[in-house]
Design a protein that fits this description.
The complex is a heterodimer of chains A (about 375) and B (about 300). Chain A has helices at about 40-50, 90-100, 105-120, 135-150, 165-185, 195-200, 220-225, 230-235, 360; strands spanning about 5-15, 15-25, 30-35, 55-60, 65, 75-80, 155-160, 185-190, 205-210, 210-215, 240-250, 255, 260-265, 270-280, 285, 295-300, 305-310, 315-320, 330-335, 345. Chain A has about 375 residues and is an alpha+beta fold. Chain B is mostly helical. Chain B folds into 2 domains: about 45-100, no CATH class; about 105-305, MetI-like (MetI-like fold), CATH 1.10.3720. A two-stranded antiparallel sheet of chain B has the order 1-2. Chain B starts with 10 loop residues before the first helix and ends in a 6-residue tail after the last helix. The chains are: A alpha+beta (about 375), B mainly alpha (about 300).
Amino acid sequence: MAEIIVRNVRKEFGDFVAVKESSFTIEDGEFFMLLGPSGCGKTTTLRMIAGLELPTSGEIILDGEEISQKPPSERDIAFVFQMFALYPHMNVRKNISYPLVSQGMPRAQVKEKVAEVARILGIEDILNRPVGGLSGGDRQRVALGRAIVREPKAFMMDEPLGALDAEFREHMAEELRALHDRMGATTVYVTHDQLEAMQMGDKIVVMNNAVVEQFGTPQDIYDAPATMFVADFIGSPSMNFLGFNGTVSPGSGSVALNGCEMGVPELREAAQGDLVFGVRPEHIRLSTDGAYRGEVLATEYLGTTQIVTLDTPNGEVKARVASDQPAAMGETVGLEFNEQTVTLFDETSGRALRSKLNEGVLGHG
Amino acid sequence: MSAHSITEPTDRAKWIAGGLVVLYALVTMIPLAWIMLTGFKSPADAISYPPKVVFEPTLEGYVNLFTTRTRQTDDFLAANPPQNWADEIVRQYDMVIVGPSKFGERFLNSVIIGFGSTFLSVFLGTLAAYAFSRFKIPLADDLLFFILSTRMMPPIAVAIPIFLMYRNLGLSDTHLGMILLYTAVNISLAVWLLKGFIDEIPREYEEAALIDGYTRFQAFYKVVLPQAATGIASTAIFCLIFAWNEYAFAVLLTSATAQTAPPFIPTIIGIGGLDWPAVAAGATIFLLPVMIFTILLRKHLLRGITFGAVRK
């Protein structure tokens, strides 16, 4: 098991830049998520770590060794593909034992190893079946078996749950996480599903347009997004953006939103012009007498909570409130924001303004 | 009347369809059956009119095909009684067998040249198709078009340049020359067909093998080739059929040593008058290798013809 350092890695395909200089560190034993919309460069980054693509420039350090230009066979990294990529002309046992055979491991030992892995994954009874007729979940387990059987330094997983149906995906996600915790293996996991990333990851890298937008723990990323993209991409419904024009200076703790003074975490930098007041739906309370008011456009009932959509002077806002709180369409209500959770952004650059809330998080982003 | 689904044919429709297929198969098989039967007819039966369907079978055609014979005087015939059943057959025309004909040799040439060029076409075609399918090759599309363009005219159009070239290179009437020639003609077909098949094999299989510690070539050999077996088999059949049946270049470029069966079979006609049973026997034997090869690979061939039609 090993630490992986990705330093200034860049990948070009002809004129197309798939990944711009990106850096992050994956610590030993971490379950590390590469998150982003399709085409953002996350899979390319994963493939560069595995050796299926060679970076145009930059360094990848695995366990203290620079490996960025080495062939995959010399990296000792396992890869689980989205479509599983089980060898279709071999049965389950052969698929799992294939990486061991390439190492020239003696037969008896291979047999023992395969049996052990099959026991861990609960697939002992299908070892002699061809892979063609297996269910999605079993294919997934065989693919995992092929990855864990040789005890590699790290696992790369490219949307391994993407091919499973929704119901089974959750179950498999738990199984994967449990497997990781038992083996303590460094795992890099690519997904476009923010929920999956939050639920499974120790750390998350959010990528967009070939750039690393933010890197940190799920909680840091959720509470203190570094950019508007991250704020928007993570969370459902996503963060509300209230645009306003104003001036802020270091040390100030409030902004004027349509004439109403709104508290924000104490700012650490100055900015002026088009700014954005970002607040998560669950940090909005509805009140009858609040000064800042909005009209209820719609409500969505979700069981314990409801999502109330409101029209405010600074744009549409979604609030997550208790479902027993009355909110009738057409009614005008007051909005109160949990001021310690607000993030201000510069609208042009999309970057979060540094404040008491996020100064610790943005430091290492 | 029982309910049936719209997509599932009714029993009656199945019977009609089946009947039509059988009828078509019979029609197409009549010439083949004709040739095979004629091989076992006597020369008189072979040309009788109306044609005989029921006749007394004889191996005369096959004996004539494989031997050369001379007419002898009555004294000689009396002094040398027939040694075996083949002798007996030729005695009825006052002839004796003096030696083997060249058919065996020509047939062997066909086997060497046909299978040799098929192997070479498929071998080179697979490697080239893999490269075109998987690697970024500069001007790949132009190269592929260039390869295909060799098919845009009948090969015989370049017969004269090839004839002169082969004479200068000393390749005329050699096995190597014919193998190279048929390979050159077949390779464009092989590359294009196989590229289609290899394109269909997901790259992930090889990538998985690379990750599992295999080299690029091992991944190709152990993972891609088994997946491409269908394509390779059907490509091999098409290549073999061309090389096996090719007549024009064989007539032009071969005579003594490397002559294949197609130009040889018509010459049988001249040896002892119009010996149709011997010609038919030659044609029958000539058909067998391709037939056996195709039957052995027919599963792959079927998949090969319909490949790409249904997405897995």
